[in-house]
Amino acid sequence: MDQLTVYGVALVPVLVGLNELLKRSGVPARFIPATAMALGYFFAFYFLAQGDFRKGLLYGTILGLSSIGLFSGAKNTLVAVRRVPRKK
């Protein structure tokens, strides 16, 4: 799990950024979770767990779900902040 803690943490915001780019380039928002999972698996198998299928599957799931959660959490926070009435 050492590789996941070092590289995985850095890959989550990268995945969020890549998914945002995909969304802005025309990919429908309903497909973003699927692309996040696919990119998570790609990076896990390519960078974190070369040659180990089970470890790659685990790391890819963790990366994909983490990036979806980070994106969703940031989006919900921005929506909530924009709804708060401002004092004059």
| Low-confidence blocks of residues | none
Calculate the mean pLDDT score and round it: 84
Count of strand segments: 0
Largest beta-sheet details? none
Q: Output the number of helix runs.
A: 3
Written as H for each helix and E for each strand, in order along the chain, the element string is HHH
Using the alpha-carbon principal axes, give the shape: elongated
Structural class, by secondary structure, is: mainly alpha
Overall tally of domains? 1
The percentage helix is over 70%
Strand content: under 5%
CA-CA gap between termini: 50 Å
* CA-atom Rg in angstroms: 15 Å
Provide keyphrases for this structure.
88 residues, mainly alpha, 3 helices
Mind sketching the topology for me?
Elements: H1 2-24, H2 32-48, H3 53-83
What this model shows, in words?
The chain has one domain (2-83). The chain has three helices and no strands. It has helices spanning 2-24, 32-48, 53-83. Helix 1 (2-24) packs antiparallel against helix 2 and helix 2 (32-48) crosses helix 3 (53-83). The model has no long low-confidence stretch (mean pLDDT 84).
In short:
The protein contains three helices and no strands. The protein has helices at residues 2-24, 32-48, 53-83.
